[in-house]
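Justification of computing resources. Each target in the renewal requires a structure prediction run like the one illustrated here; the chain below, 427 residues long, is used simply to show the kind of job we budget for.
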Amino acid sequence: MTTQQKQSNRGQWLRRGAAAVALAAVPGGLAAPVALAAPAGSPASVESTASVASGASAHGGRGQLISLTALERLAPADVTARLATLGFDASTVRYGVTAYRLTYATVDPQGRPTTATGLFVLPRGGPHRLDLVSDTHGTVATRDDAPSGGPGDNRLTPYLHSSAGRAVAAPDYLGLGGGPGAHPYMDTRSSVTASVDMLKAARTAADRLGRPVTRDVYATGFSQGAQVSMALGRELSRPGSGFRLRALAPIAGPYDLDGSELPGITDGRVAPHTAVFYLTYFLTAQNRLHPLYADPAEAFRAPYAQAVESLFDGSHTTEEIVAGLPASPQELLTPDWYENIRAPRGALRTALKVNDDACDWKPAAPVRLYGGTADTDVPFDNTLACAADLARHGVRAKVVDQGADADHFTSAIRSAPQAVRWFDSLR
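Resulting structure tokens:
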């Protein structure tokens, strides 16, 4: 594969949801995303465990498995080939994998019963009883770009982890994949409840497939998913969780929205096109949870105010969203709201505070924080801030800096295989 082809594939992965979504491709137009075809012999049958209903209460509460659908089956060589398309180190691949979509019962941000979906992956080999990895994905705005939504690039890190010999639960989050409603983007609490309930449903699915899992969970994630994984680790560490947190390996997460991410947007450390995408997604989603404005025109300039909320309804592609947005935050926001981003106040400050405590606790399990200093999507200061939060609780987390040439994407490519090897060493 040529360097140009690799760069093209990498850009497609980013645009399909690894979090650096808008990118500098706008001036020349964005390439259409490429779906990765399932190999011959992939299972197409549905193994139904129950019919899908509207809420958790109909299925016995949170974490109840509703349905289990076989998606695809890969040999080790197939896994290696998939990983190679984006330049992942595939030296830890030992087994093929089988992937399933789980539909399960959970709750929405208001605590009301709902359903969600996620990708569940089992190795084709290895021990009979498996440890479990929670792999939480980066920002996606299109439903089908979530891990269980299609055979695309957000399946790669789940396949990487599972091919090393562990079961993997990769939640789609609320409102993505096959879940109803809009995605509550960057609402850490509901992403954690969806992730915990995915682990419970995965345990049931593993039993039914004859590959039971242990209580041990290794938590990792990229970008938005890195923040989720840190907060998930705290939830799994609570007495009575039913799980045992073994390690935390988040990659390039926005752990410090108020102190690092928003300042990076206004001082230029976050690339302008990416900043526009993040801001629009964040503000429209958070407005449903913590009312920030009564009318989009209060926050967004014309003509964008008329379109911003519909652009992020889960049905639009990244290309369509980018085409509907301007090139910079100053063009996107009204003067008052641009100043609010520079110095958050009121409801915005409340929303930031609610989502800024993912690292503010004391893990008993070991922690490694991965990132890169050339990241122009989630500045590396986020990782340093997380390490500082943990240090205040007496935890010295190892910070793995992937180098001055490591942007957001490169941080993920280099870090995920390292996390797999670290998890191996902790067995």
